[in-house]
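INSTRUCTION: Work out how this chain folds

Token vocabulary: learned, describes local backbone geometry

RECORD BEGINS BELOW THIS LINE
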Amino acid sequence: MRNNSAVFVPHFHWDREWYEPFQVFRHRLVTALDTVLETAEADPAFRFTVDGQMAAIEDYLEMRPENRERLVALVREGRIAIGPWLILLDEFLCSGETIVRNLQMGWAAAAELGGAMSIGYLPDMFGHIAQMPQILARAGIEHAALWRGVPGSVDGHAFRWRAPDGSEVRTEFLFDGYDNGLDVLLVPDRIRHALGEYAEMTAERWGGDPVLAMAGTDHNAPDPQLASWLRHASSTERAITVATLDEYIRKHVRDEVTAVVTGELRSHVRGNILPGVLSVRLGLKQRMAVAERTIDHAERMNALWSGRDDSPFLALAWHKIIESTAHDSVVGSGTDETCDQVAARLAEAAQAARAVRDAALAEPAAEVPGDGYLVANPLPWERTALVEVDVRVPTEDSALVSTAPDGSSHPVQLISQAPTVLSDERLDASQLERVLRRIHRRELFGRLIDHYDLTPGSLVFHLTEAPTGPFDLLILRREIAAAAAAHPGEWRVRTLVEARATALVPVQVPAGGLTSFRVTADDRPTVPATPPAPATAGDDTLANGLVKVVVAADGTLELTGMDGTVLSGVGRLVDGGDRGDSYNYAPPARDALVSEPIQITVQVIESGPLRCRMRVTRVYEWPVALSSDRDQRNDHTVRTPVDMLVEVRAGEPFVRLSTSFLNQSADHRLRLHVPLPQPVSMSASAGQFAVTERGLTAEGGWGEFPLPTFPAGSFVSAGPATVLLDHTGEYELVDDGSELAITLLRAIGSISVNIHPLRDEPAASEIPVPGAQDLGMRIENRFAIVPSAAGWQGANAVALAEEFRNDVLVTRGTAPSSSPLPPSADGLQVDGRDVHVSSIRRVTDDTRTTGTEVRLAAMSDTASAVRVTGAFTEATTVDLLGRPISEPVPAPGTLELDLGPWEIRTVVLR
């Protein structure tokens, strides 16, 4: 049975920044929303859906605050639909926690203006994460609407989208895009005829439901006469209704939907998902990771160790992070000036979060002596971490040891030594006053004056990190004036700093807690010279008893894991041409892959016992660019050294790697390969509250070649190789599953190209973006590799990835140096296998009662038993918008939870 009615949804899709920077687009936005308000007030039948994102509303009201009440009236009447998101994001290029905060901030902003549309509207994202149905469902949202990524198995206009945990949302499939109604509206006098043709052409999709005609496009308000045109076109044969998207889904369609799709949506079958955005503009992906990590640490430190509520600064930082997640922002598909603004915004977010983090740590640091250090653990389990600190160099007859609050001592590894003579000058006595102008209170050359020696013709400053006595600049000024008058002529002025070195110190930190230490010289050291399982280095070997690295003749690595698993050829670099754009990679027709270096050097730079490192430098001849016809790489090459720092730490079951090179080539893609002992057919990568398995191919069918390049957040695993990642990036299983390839750089020169070998239609205008070539930039990547036959679960990759990404936080004490070390302090502890702690933060309810909110995600297909331990007496389960969904339960210091497979659970502890 066919329904002969149609529902038109007037809307626009608003890219906040893209081929123009934010402020240019905002100028258009204000004009467009002015038109929408005027149209809605003039025509009671008009409806409008504001793209599902509150950023457009916030940006508008900042310029038009006088229109706030006009907008509120229309929202409350249901004639304008706003929210629920703060911004339409790229779901794969930010953390799951950022997605939750996006929804929370959008929902709260909409509530102040009349309430959010309870539809998970996701019109233009480049694919969708597996856990989005659970995120929506746990916020009380039952419906979604989207376009890209839906597999070919869906043949109707709706399906049940199921998350790994079993949560479902009914999902409206915008199978012809979010502008499918525009062609019908091209000739207003022929709307009835055009609609009839479209309805017949797509009849099998709609069944008995009315046609959904999305009447809008990018960056333009609908014509003010739209509702009038549609009234004229409506007939008894085909009734036309104007509605918001929320009204269409709730009032005009059936709830009975049989098609079910489980997990992520990354099919190319009905629309381009533009996977190249995962790897272009590397710096934006790295800045996003830094900003997210910094604000996470700031929230944890503020909640656990500060008496100050810094929520305004944290809200500011979150807002800037979320703004930057927009699907044309962090993806890097904008112009150079747009991407510069995104980078600056992310930097500002990290700076605001860093201020909160440091202020929180300053409170307990006030109890730590000035010659000691405070160490904070952002992770909710006990760990031993290595920290680098500045220390005094011991005499030849003594050794450095670190002392913990309980009196125990630990070995220290010296890394580097700083110069002791900072300046040595000869000048006339009449010029001595100029030397004093360099001193700012007590600071000189970035250090503090401990004392000085003043003798006839000689002035010596002795600098230190922690002065032991008083210093008075006025007294010094009088003494020098008198000495200069008494001894005219040449003087020698020297500035000496105490012998200092950088030391590596092992520190055992409680779960989510604090500890402290000081490093001193011991003439009779009683601690062992090495840890029980030291890290050791040979000419071409690093080992620590858990993992071993051997550098091969070609500069690649052979890794042996604690279970005997061997990975050979790790770190092979393959560089090829890229004639694509910011949206899609494309090899030139006659590519020239470069994988063999012309020169290799290996240097051991640290020999243990806590950490050993070696630098493998390989020099390559990379073509400088593509040829003028872009079908092959240029014959002109440039010698490019690539440094690979290989690191093994005592007690760690993985090998840390970092690569660094100065990019002097354009239009190319560089990937690091991890060969596998046997070919595999599946990979798995972690991100956004799930570990997603993928095969060797991707589903195609639209105008885009389905390259099987996939996103990875915190780790990617293939067979016995698990790679821990510093930031979200791109990977692929190549050579029929025999190697894992991770993209280190993709350098391109255009937002979009009109003729693309792997995409039928342009993704945008062909606008040059020379900044996306990263020419003259130092390209650095950091990761770690775990060899384990047991795969990612057997290797405990969820926890290892967190330890790799999250260093402990270290700050110098500010109490008098003679003070004792304060006792270690326990924080919040979470015990549970394969459980990710996404957030720990301070929250305040409507009664202004403060609590600590903890968000947990079970990263496993089996149930997880979790124990949370800390200073609390009761616990309340809340939804993802912070609303209680259970009564408080007594929990005197311990909370036992049973998480279902892949479940996200949020609790507030008080």
Summary: Residues 336-365 form the longest helix (30 residues). DSSP finds 16 helices and 50 strands in the chain. The mean pLDDT is 95. The two ends are 56 Å apart (CA to CA).
